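Here comes my example:
=====
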Amino acid sequence: SQLNPIPSVVLPLPGYIFNPAPGGTPNTLAMQGGNPDLKPKKAKVWTVGLDFKPPQVPGFTSKLTYYDIVFSNEIIAAGGSINASNIFVDEAILGPEVVQRNPPLSLIEQLISLPTYMNPFHIDPRTIGAIYNTGSLNVSTVKTRGLDFGVGYKTTFLGAGIDTGIDGTYIFTFDNQFTNTAPVTSFLNTTYNPTDLRFRARAILNYGALSGGMYVNFT
């Protein structure tokens, strides 16, 4: 479906449904579908880690890993990444490949001639002043850096096995750039995107055939 050249939906939307933005919010032709020119997305990944198990403290383990990842040509669909009512508010971030102002009439006529075109709002195609492409595009670069960490301790006490520990991730950076000309935007701690700190703590007790545990998840 990502490579399908025919949009699955071609839909004119009235300008008043969008949040106010500089330059106005014109009637907009939204299209959702594939892109036959998609290329594979790539990533450069650097990691360095340390695992520490001191022999003086049997059962104790700790680990720390630093990562630095850059995704390029990332395949995204803008419709799944942003609030559609804000496309003109975020127009500079999205770039012209996602929000195209003043499209030529020939392009509009080509799109509305497709079999997936529908017009429930009865909008005159001649009044369309923008195209919103929610299809798959190689437009995004994502850079992220952070730490994965964990500490654990296993022991036996009065015949019972005890397993305690905590594992988590702390993200320093999660930056997204929709196009080469768009500004870099931090998506960290925003809706539908990663939070800077997450961890899961555990305390597990095993005694014969009986086992029980308590977990604490923090986001």
